Amino acid sequence: MAARERTIRTIEERVYRRTESVFVRCPELFRFSVRDRSGLPDHIDPTTLAGELFIFEIALAPRLGKVQYDEVYDAIAATITAAVSSWPQAKDLLRGKTFVRYLH
């Protein structure tokens, strides 16, 4: 395995560990996705948004209201922001991904 591939694999593992920590901190969260501008729904005008990555399809059970949703959104956003700040390559790894809680 080439050095670049090892680096990407290491970053990918670290990013996924960080996203898993969101599921641990937010037991009601069971899914979210990360999109770039090209993946935005048609009804959203991308020119009105700042940033390169966007969080969508947040699924909570039970959903207890706006405050809970906002807290979970903030936890996801902080995790994504920290990952991209730590490893700029994470932007490419996160784009278009859906993260789902898994049960064992």
Structure commentary:
By secondary structure, this protein is an alpha+beta fold. Helices cover 47% and strands 16% of the residues. It has one domain. Strands 2-1-3 form a three-stranded antiparallel beta sheet, covered by helices on one side. The protein is globular, with a radius of gyration of 14 Å.
SSE order and pairing:
Layout: H1 3-25, E1 29-35, E2 54-60, H2 66-86, H3 90-94, E3 98-100
Helix pairs in contact: 1-2
Short description:
By secondary structure, the protein is α+β, with helices and mostly antiparallel strands. It has 3 helices and 3 strands; from the N terminus they run H-E-E-H-H-E.
Give me some keywords for this one.
104 residues, 3 helices, 3 strands, single chain, 47% helix, alpha+beta, three-stranded antiparallel beta sheet
* Percent range of helical residues: 40-55%
- Helix/strand order: HEEHHE
Characterize the overall form: globular
Number of strands: 3
Low-pLDDT segments: none
Number of helices: 3
